[in-house]
Specification:
By secondary structure, this protein is an alpha+beta fold. It is built from 13 helices and 23 strands. The structure holds glycyl-adenosine-5'-phosphate. The site of glycyl-adenosine-5'-phosphate has 19 residues, from strand 10, strand 13, strand 16 and helix 9.
Length: about 425
């Protein structure tokens, strides 16, 4: 994990937030390569979950919602973790995450711990000029609640019929007691959630629940994560969140252990029913074909963008040997790699035609131009940021209108006609996405 964190900083994937002020625990910034990789993960999720389906539509709702939302959802009363404080060093821990055998002694200094207390994880703020209880509001701890509160508006405006889904990607905030494992558990993070509304009958619920397990697991594989590192784990009864009747987690074998990437839950009609009760608005669904009215049940797929990003980075990180030298290579699936093609003129004298070619390619693909240092060194740098293809423009290119394309994983090289380069790159990206 240390090596991965160090590479993330060295190459501009992830920085500590406000590093110059000593950092702020549980918050992270994404650098020039991190933002590209992250955008590619989100774009691929949106394409799979919304663009390529005719039964899912998207929304983008506000981070701060009416505070009654959180009363109705149960977050005000139940969204808490048990917390203990050390009476000596004043450090705070999650009671359920203390190392075994340290229930009453501080794991850091051996001091006495307080009794566990419930600690609500929602960040509180004030809306408007007055700072009193009438202006209290919360940063959303999950993106899905506004999907439920906007259910009726989406039904009437989108012409979707049950079964159908509403998807959203956006920031969520949780005042985690112990943020840890790099970007795995942070206080500000992004979720990619989809709520799929179905008829409330049990058999139908089970069918869609199973369907979404398969779809979601498959998505992680197509993202380039090796299937032997992915697992599905059913929640035990006592683990289930207050709203769920069943839940399965997609887990990944991180260097720090097997941990959750996504939860797929059968939320029944808990949320819509709660919002009906609290808002006194009719959020039921009317099926004209069968002349029936019901409150739909929901199968939720709730993924963390940051955790997915970390899994993608961990899975891509490899060391091998090229020409007798060790190299670090990020084997990202080409379609999500932050840079698709490195443009490396063999000599600075070839800068003009090489840049001309780059300007043409960058309209379609993320490129990176590099003419500094030996070609071997430049290849190593592109390998370390996971660029799947490198293009070398040499003196022959001037006359034969061909360039050399080198593949990151095999280091194999091929001569390709300049007017075929776009198709060549596109084929490599498409093949990786469809595999
Ligand atoms: N709407 C359901 C929901 O929010 P959750 O299991 O609490 O369910 C879903 O969260 C996903 O959000 C998790 O699987 C994880 O990927 C991500 N997530 C939750 N808390 C997180 C945190 N503190 N830091 C990073 N990601 C987090």
């Amino acid at each position: 994990m240390e090596e991965i964190v160090s590479l993330c900083k060295r190459r501009g994937f992830v920085f500590q937030s406000s590093e110059i002020y000593g950092g702020i625990n549980g918050f992270w910034d994404f650098g020039p390569l991190g933002v590209e990789l992250r955008n590619n993960v989100k774009r691929f999720w949106w394409q799979t979950m919304v663009d390529l389906r005719d039964d899912v539509v998207g929304v983008d709702t506000s981070i701060i919602a009416h505070p009654q939302t959180w009363e109705a959802s149960g977050h005000l009363s139940s969204f808490s973790d048990p917390m203990v404080d050390c009476k000596e060093c004043k450090k705070r821990f999650r009671a359920d995450q203390l190392p075994e055998g340290t229930t009453d002694k501080c794991p850091e200094c051996g001091g006495e711990l307080t009794e566990p207390r419930a600690f609500n994880l929602m960040f509180k703020t004030f809306v408007g000029a007055k700072e009193d209880s009438s202006s209290e509001a919360y940063l959303r701890p999950e993106t899905c609640q506004s999907i439920f509160t906007q259910f009726k508006n989406v039904v009437t405006t989108s012409r979707q019929k049950v079964p159908f889904g509403i998807a959203q990607i956006g920031k969520s905030f949780r005042n985690e007691i112990t943020p840890r494992n790099f970007i795995f558990r942070s206080r500000e993070f992004e979720q990619m959630e989809m709520e799929f509304f179905i008829k409330p009958e049990k058999a139908i619920q089970n069918e869609w629940y199973e369907y979404w397990h398969k779809e979601r697991l498959n998505w992680y594989k197509r993202l380039g994560i090796r299937s032997e590192h992915l697992h599905m784990r059913d929640h035990e009864e006592d683990e289930l969140a207050h709203y769920a009747s069943a839940c399965v987690d997609v887990e990944y074998d991180f260097p720090f252990g097997r941990s959750e990437l996504e939860g797929i839950a059968n939320r029944g009609n808990y949320d819509l029913s709660q919002h009906i009760e609290h808002s006194k608005k009719d959020l039921s669904y009317f099926n004209q074909a069968d002349n029936e009215k019901f409150v739909p049940a929901v199968i939720e797929t709730s993924a963390g963008c940051d955790r997915t990003l970390l899994a993608v980075i961990c899975d891509a990180y490899q060391k091998d040997e090229v020409g007798g030298e060790e190299r670090i290579v990020m084997r990202f699936a080409p379609h999500i790699a932050p840079v698709k093609i490195g443009i490396l003129p063999l000599s600075k004298k070839l800068a003009e035609p090489a840049k001309k070619l780059e300007n043409d390619l960058r309209k379609r693909f993320k490129t990176d131009y590099d003419d500094a240092g030996s070609i071997g060194k430049r290849y190593r740098r592109q390998d370390e940021i996971g660029t799947p293809l490198c293009l070398t423009y040499d003196f022959d290119s001037e006359t034969d209108n061909q360039v050399t394309i080198r593949h990151r994983d095999t280091t194999k090289q091929e001569r390709v006609a300049i007017d075929q380069v776009k198709n060549y790159i596109q084929d490599v990206l498409d093949a990786s996405q469809d595999s």
